[in-house]
Amino acid sequence: MNNRITSLFNIQYPIIQAGMIWASGWRLASAVSNAGGLGIIGSGSMYPEVLKEHIQKCRTATSKPFAVNIPLLYPNIAEHIQTIIDEKVPIVFSSAGNPATWTAKLKEHGITVVHVVSSSKFALKAQEAGCDAVVAEGFEAGGHNGREETTTLVLIPAVCNAVSIPVIAAGGIATGRQMLAAMVLGASGVQIGTRFVASTEASCHINFKETVTQTKEGGTQLSLKKLTPVRLIKNKFFEQVQAAENNGASVEALKELLGRGRSKTGMFEGNLEEGELEIGQVSALVKEIKPAAEIVQEIWTDFESALKDPLG
């Protein structure tokens, strides 16, 4: 396919693998890029020297374009930005912060910049900051989420109407038929996280991957809204958060409950009760752990089939 997103990133398919903490290292990113999509290294769980290592290993493992996701609220953000510039990373996906802070500096070095948004208002701010595209991420998405709770079905056309730059749809997408639906709404591509968590190359713990494939409808819920909203699998830690929130816990009390390394405990170390397990609603449709290349091809084949017979 040749459209605005495939041309912007120089990729075969408009399928982007999300940059997820504890899941998307160089192995997953390079595998997706080699399969014709755009792989993304998730830097949010990496120290600066670890990010540099992943970029270098990814470049060795693929000759195709790849990207790095940078949460703009990350404490070592300036070091991450410099590493990305020094290593000549071609594409950056920024999130969780003001895109005006770093976009111009990145673009000075010829880097394509995409920002993740949860509303038309923030999409316009990203466009004004000089971003080349936006990811419009709906309420269904895993990980950090928008407080507005706007669903993907509503968000995508709203953002497409608001901006002139390409829009990438995210949140609740794991199949080619869902990809087609997003593109009918105006998106030029899709960003997929949850489906790639359940891949052999994802760096998260096998316990977490298997739990994702066993999660049913209603098995996740948006939580920690007083801090940074995040969609979690319902486990012991989630229940503790719910109880605290129902009892009117303060921001400070919730921060103390969350503590340090809670997501690492769950997603990377595999503690399914005490850990923070971030995943999207679409986990209810993910039933099998597969190599990333198979996932990309499965999505694309399903997309082509749906395109030929959308009512099938």
Please give a handful of descriptors for the protein shown.
312 residues; alpha/beta; TIM Barrel; 2 domains; 8-stranded parallel sheet; 3-stranded antiparallel sheet; 14 helices; 11 strands; 15% strand; globular
A few lines on this structure:
The chain has helices at residues 4-9, 26-34, 48-61, 77-86, 103-108, 120-128, 152-162, 176-184, 194-197, 206-214, 236-246, 251-258, 262-268, 292-308; strands at residues 15-17, 39-42, 66-71, 91-95, 112-117, 133-137, 143-144, 167-170, 189-192, 220-223, 230-233. The protein is of the alpha/beta class. The mean pLDDT is 94.
What does this structure look like?
The protein has 312 residues and is an alpha/beta fold. It folds into two domains: 4-203 and 285-308, TIM Barrel; 207-282, no CATH class. It contains 14 helices and eleven strands. An eight-stranded parallel beta sheet has the order 1-9-8-6-5-4-3-2. A three-stranded antiparallel beta sheet has the order 7-11-10, covered by helices on one side. Helix 3 (48-61) links the parallel strand 2 and strand 3.
